Amino acid sequence: MSIEWKGVFPAITTKFTAADELDLPLFEKNLQAQLAAGIDGIILGGSLGEASTLTTAEKETLTKFTVEKVAGKIPVVVNIAEGATRDAVQQAALVKKWGAAGIMLLPPMRYKSDERETAAWFKTVAASTDLPVMVYNNPVDYKIEVTLNIFDQLQELPNIQAVKESTRDVSNVTRMINRFGDRFKILCGLDTLALEEMVLGAHGWVGGLVDAFPAETVAVYRLVKAGRIKEAVEIYRWFLPLLELDLYPKLVQFIKLAEAEVGLGSEYVRAPRLTLEGAERESVLQVIRTAVANRPVLPDYLSL
């Protein structure tokens, strides 16, 4: 399956049971809600998917299960985050074998590569596969920036097609478009900047709170792209306190709590993460429950 790299791509959470095993029935419940809401693709095993705690066997199970359930309706993209280039190349081969349609590729983990090394990393992994690749550019969390000069070098790889833009600088959308035109599709990777970046020309949104609120997320995207900015902004203003849960180190726990509150997930996380408790949990619950109590009535966004 080719990937258009536009629209809403949830970075879906990995559902666990109380016994710390994959909860595939609950995962499917969320997945079906995402499909019904009109998402355009899905990303497995990202930061929200607790990738660093998943075994290769679990990634295989999740990927094959998702590919089967979406039945070709949307592309399934798998995150690759490794410390060694050869391991990333091996993961790319496995991802294709499992049936994924594309890869989201992080820069090297644990080692802060320089510009030459970072470019070589992306080029080597991309050259090893024919799967479409989305570069994840998040220098705030991962300490390595994929600069414009690096993207200039990556142009030679036709399967490097998109970027998950998480620099926290909305102007970077304009810089990318000014420099490369439509060569790289841009998907906003930070919930709190999604509307702004889409107005500036970003093609899509890799979402976090979409895991709990898929319809509202897709509605904002489609309204913006239809030029109905005022309606999108009204929903976005309601959404913002929820979207800000994506900004914290405990975003996984926060978003899983939101999923549990709306019946699309559970609070179970994998250690070393622990479920929320006490005043912290109550504070997050207040944000979620206030938003749910005031949930907006959405227009017929699916017809846009």
UniProtKB/TrEMBL annotation:
<feature type="active site" description="Schiff-base intermediate with substrate">
    <location>
        <position position="164"/>
    </location>
</feature>
<dbReference type="InterPro" id="IPR013785">
    <property type="entry name" value="Aldolase_TIM"/>
</dbReference>
<protein>
    <submittedName>
        <fullName>4-hydroxy-tetrahydrodipicolinate synthase</fullName>
    </submittedName>
</protein>
<comment type="similarity">
    <text>Belongs to the DapA family.</text>
</comment>
<feature type="binding site">
    <location>
        <position position="206"/>
    </location>
    <ligand>
        <name>pyruvate</name>
    </ligand>
</feature>
<keyword id="KW-0456">Lyase</keyword>
<dbReference type="GO" id="GO:0008840">
    <property type="term" value="F:4-hydroxy-tetrahydrodipicolinate synthase activity"/>
</dbReference>
<dbReference type="InterPro" id="IPR002220">
    <property type="entry name" value="DapA-like"/>
</dbReference>
<dbReference type="Pfam" id="PF00701">
    <property type="entry name" value="DHDPS"/>
</dbReference>
<feature type="active site" description="Proton donor/acceptor">
    <location>
        <position position="136"/>
    </location>
</feature>
